[in-house]
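Re-running the complex after MR caught last week's input typo. The corrected sequence lines follow. Everything else is unchanged.
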Amino acid sequence: MIKVNNVSMKFNLGIEKNFSLKQFFINLFKSKKNKPKKEEFWALKDVSFEVKKGEVIGFIGSNGAGKSTMLKVIAGVMKPTKGSVEVYGNICPMIELGAGFDPDLTARENIYLNGAVLGYSKEFLESKFEEIVEFSELREFLDVPVRNFSSGMTARLAFSIATVVDPEILIVDEILSVGDIAFQQKSEEKMKSLIGGGTTVLFVSHSLEQIKKICNKVIWLEHGHIKKIGPSKEMCKEYYEEQVK
Amino acid sequence: MFLKNVTINLKKYSFLLQQLVSRDFKVKYKRSVLGIVWSLLYPILTMVVMAIVFSNVFKFSTPGVNYLAYLLSGLVMFNYFNEASNLAMSSVVGSFSLLNKIYIPKYIFPLSKCLFVGINFLLTLVPLYIVLFATGTGVNIYHLLLPYAFICLFMFTLGMGFILSAVSVFLRDMFYIYGIVVMMWTYLTPIMYDIKMINESLQPWLKLNPMYHYINFAREIILYGRIPQPFTWVTCIISAVFVLIVGVVVFKKTQDKFIYYV
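Corrected-run output:
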């Protein structure tokens, strides 16, 4: 389903310096020797793994270990500096909810806009429109501009749009529950049913409890390398022990 | 192969494109009282201001044709270029929060801006035709040829939009530089004056400007009621296609690096 082959990802930390015209011209006249070497940062180094259909994979590792970068590379947001990623099936990235909401548009209009951004077709959205409205419990606010929504309401709407799909591959970055307590439970149920429905899931979380509950395999990343791959319970235990040590 | 990919892609993302264009429309007029009427009113008001300044203060005139019609026909087309290229330039940088999270073909942002302003442009043809009738300039059968100039203008603007949006990712100064460039461009394009008023030795230089040819093509038809010269036809299409190809190549070559400059 997903094949990650020797993926490396390089960032230039000094990139900011080239932003202004002044710096640009200064650099032009500087001789090559004097140019400070750009600081390079390898967010991922030679990472390879395979995910089979229906597997639920958890990614663990400390901040900056490359978890989110890995997901972005798989989602196609970033092209790897080296290596390649093969993905078979449509991806639903739930990396951040409500990306592409326009605050001046009403909830109704944003459902269509955000749906289009997520790659849904017009027919699909029209057939699922009721379901989205029903799940978000925001029917009476359908024609209110989203800028007047509370953050909880916005998150509920975004969650309802993002999870209405039946994707083949689901990418989740720490968004299991939103809204008030009642909606949190509801959204967690929804996530579980999505994940349990035979979908392939890539899941990043710092909550080992959730990882243990949901995932059947864990990839442990450290400084851009894969430290270990293994069954989730053992990996979580090992990881936890190392972290508290 | 490339064209085939583009058509498949466009089909897949046509709904998104449509949503982005309609979003721009809704947001543009939502909070104003007159709403879409502004699209009609704005060019007329600009024309009135410019007409007062240039025909009364500077005593510009265009012998044989009505100055208002002359002014507005140029203004409408140049305004399209100005607005669309500016919006397209900031479209990629403005969509970084999206591009950073979800895979969307990046060309869709400059394209949607050029289309959005394009629809707005068609609306501004209404005041143009009102002025044509009101000033007694009238219409003729050759008006059916005008879409040729509009399509060339669109391709040229889209190409510029691709170049500008890609360059501005790497060089944010472009937003300021381009503001000045467009101002110069406005005065170097014969919009409010006739090119014949310019020193003859300078005229060939002014004619290097593709915008001159698109506007000239339209004016030949609208004001003088004649089919444009073959030379004008050829210049229009060659400059438009050339700039569009350069734009596509520049954009395609650089788009994978955009994400590092978020």
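None of the earlier attempt is carried over here. The longest helix of chain A spans residues 181-196. Chain A has two domains: 2-90+205-244, 100-166.
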